Amino acid sequence: MEFDALNSYIYEHDVLEALLKKYPDIRLCLDTGRLFLQQNVDPSFQALPVIRKYAKYADVIHLWNLQYTKSSVKLRYPVLPEQRPEDGWAPIGDYLTVIREENPQVKIQFEHRSDLVSHEDLQRCYEWVDECLRSTNPS
To answer: What strands lie across the sheet with 107-110, from one edge to the other?
Structure first.
């Protein structure tokens, strides 16, 4: 089950978490870009606490970034270490830290639009994500 535009019933209450505990075969896909986009359009929503709450129930993280500024939105971009929150990018490093803490066995599905970056940048993406996910988890 993939999160897409969550309502406050999901992120402010524990009803879904109780169901996920009751039915452990149901697993989630957390989409980093959608969560960050919602944070920018829903003043009551914060992506990081939602990731912390639900990462333990995730099998897959759809990992991509977007840049959200007052004048534009750049969607479906592979994550790169130089994408800084102060420039409107999602704090992917923070997201990965929480994911590593809550569910180190999760699978990463990288952004489909790898053609938006060079082969060298794509390799840097993979290496950076690997480093983020392994930095305090030596196993």
So the answer is: 28-31, 58-63, 107-110
